[in-house]
Amino acid sequence: MPVITIEMGNKWKIETAITIKNIVMDVVRTSFGLKSTDRNIKVIRYDQDLFELKDPYEIYIEILMRSGRSAEFKQQLYSSIVSAINDKTLFKKEHILIVLNEQPVENWAIKGGYMADDTLP
User: Fold this and answer.
1) Are 99 and 62 in contact (CB under 8 A)?
2) Among 11, 43, 10, which Cα is nearest to 24's?
3) 37-84 pLDDT, tens digit each
4) Per-residue pLDDT reduced to its tens digit, 89-98
5) What are the φ/ψ torsions at residue 17 (nearest 5 degrees)?
6) Contact between 82 and 20 (Cβ < 8 Å)
7) What local confidence, expressed as pLDDT, does residue 119 receive?
8) pTM of the model as a whole
9) Could you report the per-residue pLDDT of 26-37, keeping only the tens digit for each?
10) Partner residues linked to 41 by β-bridges
11) What sign does the dihedral 9-10-14-15 (CA atoms) show?
12) For residues 76 and 31, is the Cβ–Cβ distance under 8 A?
């Protein structure tokens, strides 16, 4: 199951951060075929003096996941996330930076410290 981190400046209201969190989680859940209870997501809002992204970016989204997904899957994931945020908030697609951090399945410990296997979604 992916682990998602969303980072943004605190010039945006908490309600906006929650909306972004819910949008991203819905897209990830649908894309990966996860159950509604499968949620590993956090939003970090920084004081504007402590958060800078190169223009025009305003939101940084990192998705930590096991390696092995196709380029087509990744492109669809990116497109779905930015389109949903663009359609449901004031953020434009061009203001969203997404990074996938892919890790081999043996780098995941689950269910009390057991090494994950290829059945991990």
Assistant:
1) yes
2) 43
3) 889 999 999 998 999 999 999 999 999 998 999 999 999 999 999 999
4) 999 999 999 9
5) -60, -40
6) no
7) 55
8) 0.89
9) 999 999 999 988
10) 4
11) negative
12) yes
And the tokens for 9?
């400046």
What is the band of 120 on the pLDDT scale with cuts at 50, 70, 90? Answer: low
Residue 17 near residue 45 (C-beta atoms within 8 A) = yes
The rounded distance, in Å, linking the Cα atoms of 97 and 81 is: 10
Alpha-carbon gap, residue 40 to 105, rounded angstroms: 17
- Here the tokens at position 107 are 């780098």
The residues that bridge with 6 in the sheet, in sequence order, are 43, 61
The C-alpha angle with vertex 80 and arms to 43 and 83, in degrees rounded to 5, equals: 85
Calculate the CA dihedral of residues 82, 26, 14, 86 and round it to 10 degrees: 20
- Give me the mean pLDDT over the 89-117 stretch: 87
Strand 114-115 and strand 59-66: the pairing is unpaired
Which helix (H) or strand (E) element contains residue 7? strand 3-9
Q: Which alpha helices (DSSP H) does 33-90 contain, by range?
A: 71-88
